[in-house]
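Re: weekly structure request thread

Next one in the queue (132 aa):
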Amino acid sequence: MRSLLCGAALSLAFGLAAQAQVPGQAAPGTVNPPVSNPPAASPSAAAAPAASDASATVSPYKVGMTIKDAQGGAVGTIARVIRTPDGATTISASVDGRNVNLPASALTLSADGGAVSSMSKAQITASTVPPT
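Done, posted below.
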């Protein structure tokens, strides 16, 4: 009977030792350690897009804003706000039914909620005419 109890005790001891060595399981009576998350990929590891729509960023210019010249004449409307890879903001505007790109630095906000261009409509259309 005594050898039977010793055999059962040894079997139980070996079973507990084997269970404690199973990956992902803690030994009975212990607390599972916290699981650490793998480190996030560094921003430099991801490829940067060529250009992105910046209308959701902090740009003060919004799609649909009216663009006027310094004299108050209508130039066009903002169609898109684009953030270039170098961090600059470009405005895609609809002028006389054509899309033209302007640097955001050529615009300022007006009191009426629109934008004022430092360039006249004639200058904008002349600078964006396709070559012949």
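Residues 2-20 form the longest helix (19 residues). The first strand starts at residue 52 and ends at 53.
Next request, please.
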